[in-house]
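Before drawing any conclusions, I looked closely at one protein's amino acid sequence and its backbone structure tokens, quoted below without any editing.
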Amino acid sequence: MKKIIAALAIANAFGAINTAQAEVISFSSSKDTATTAWADVLSFGKFDTRLGTLNSITFDLSGVVSGSGRAESLDAASSTITLALSSILTLTRPDGSTIVIANPVFSKGYAASAFDGTIDFAGTSGVSTGSVSNSASTSFKSASNSDFALFSQVGAGTIDLKLAATGNSVGSGAGNLITQFATSAAADVKVTYDYTAAAAVPEPETYAMLIGGLGLLGLVRRRATKKQA
């Protein structure tokens, strides 16, 4: 029984010294709805290298496009007009290189009759989306040493990333077509650090447990040797 207790004491002591766990820490920021095109700077916490060793960095970008579109068909025949409201959201590093892109799109087809003689985006030859919106999300996981260096610092700190949105709306379906669009965009960004936590520094009592366990195990072995003699 004493031998088992000693072995357990040694195992527990070594476990306390060598334990390392996978952890995550995240930082989030957002941009409220604004008329495209816009550009803004969002700040995020860096990874504190004192916490452990980075395994990867994940960038999550969620975007929303909202607004309205309308069109007037000037064709002499009926047609189906597709109106697509779109915004391209781009997150970049401080040096301008692209990290991740999201492209929320609202797209729908509308029936239009032959041109009714009035360019008013109404009547039988005019179509409109009304107020609409749609969202899109994308992510990018980086395990590059250059990103690890860029997003890490002893004691943490912050890093500024540029987020930009451009309108990319289009209308199609009629050979002679007039379109008008009004779009806005909003976005949420999250930066997540996946890391292996640094092994905890053993407490003095851990060393005492280790030494005591080794001593007890040695005592048990000596007694067993004497009995065999």
Remarks:
- The longest strand covers residues 52-73.
- Helices lie at 2-18, 145-150, 204-228.
- The two ends are 21 Å apart (CA to CA).
- Confidence is low (pLDDT under 50) at residues 1-11, 13-17.
